[in-house]
Amino acid sequence: MRAVVVEGFGVLPSVREVAVPRVAAGGVLVRVEATGLCRSDWHGWQGHDSDIVLPHVPGHELAGTIAAVGEGVTGWEIGERVTTPFICACGTCEQCRAGNHQVCPDQLQPGFNYWGSFAEYVALPFAEVNLIRLPDGLSFDTAAGLGCRFATSFRAIRQVGRVQADENVVIFGCGGVGLSAVMIAAALGARVVAVDTNPEALALARAYGATDTVQAGTDVVAAIKDLTNGGADVTMDALGANSVVQQALLSLRPRGRHLQVGLLPSGVQLDVSRLIGQELEWLGSHGMAAHAYPEMLDLVADGTLRPAELITRTITLDEVPAALDALTAGTPAGVTVIHP
Where is the Enoyl reductase (ER) domain (predicted)? Predict the structure, then answer.
């Protein structure tokens, strides 16, 4: 099969022929019909993830058809249209038994723990726990964008952040995660402020439901406090930067909630005294379990959520190395989907 292969961290990958992954017991082999290009893939390529062993094939947002079924897998057949969370949980540990698959200590992530979906085929473990059947009306392109960015934002906003109608929610960073969060928070009835450096991204945020936008680089905190009448109820860092975290925390009103979704490979500094004195909540959110998908899929089916509108570009495998390299300069507006 053809795949995007990383030979060195930070070194431009190549597209070449490699062996098709084998199907392990309990798993399936999926022919990749669409896969998303995510900033997490860039972090992995840069060497920010200790689980990655070179040579490596990135890619963790995917949708496709089952090409082979491993020993012991029941309830799934060749040819079925499927997607999966980027966190493939074991299904048997203490956290999984409690329903918290997204923090399974024995999880495997395609594109990180093993070769991922920037390829014509990808192997998925623990199939009975992690596979999700695609509704007939859901395209492969849309489904590919759900597995990481949209599902992560849905759980962060809906479940972890507990966003309510009429709350002031500020989203920092309008890439795929941030724009997904804007759409989801707006659909829940929140007043959404989007912050980004890219005017095109801010225009998309307004199209997806943001009430106001703020150009990063201005006095962001003062602008947010003015727009929210004193401070946000919820802030979310969808980018992952120490400077963004500081602005987000300073933008909160007392007893506000901060959602950290963007990765922070260089660490972060926190004013713990302010966290205590203002009774602020720092909330981490990491993906969403397969069993939690039905609520999100129902909202997609009835038109409340419109993830297909987030897709702004489709590319081929041959275009992936350059697109990955371009993320070094910043996250482009919208979602990029790859057709292997």
Answer: 10-338
With 0-12 / 13-18 / 19 or more C-beta atoms within 10 angstroms meaning exposed / middle / buried, residue 91 is buried
pLDDT at residue 263 in the model? 81
Residue 177 has pLDDT above 80, yes or no: yes
* Of 120, 21, 146, 116, residue with least CA distance to 65: 120
4 strand-pairing partners: 15
From 161, 185, 191, select the one nearest 257 (Cα to Cα). Answer: 161
- Alpha-carbon dihedral of residues 103, 124, 336, 112, nearest 10 degrees? 60
Q: 162-284 is classed in which CATH architecture?
A: 3-Layer(aba) Sandwich (3.40)
| CA neighbor of 255 nearest in space, from 166, 167, 159 | 167
Sequence spans of domains, the chain:
2-150+288-339, 162-284
Q: Where are the alpha helices (DSSP H) in 251-319?
A: 272-277, 293-301
CATH superfamily of 2-150+288-339: Medium-chain alcohol dehydrogenases, catalytic domain (3.90.180.10)
Bond into 55 cis (ω within 30): yes
Q: What is the pLDDT of residues 246-255, one digit of tens each?
A: 999 999 999 9
Question: Could you tell me the pTM of the whole model?
Answer: 0.89
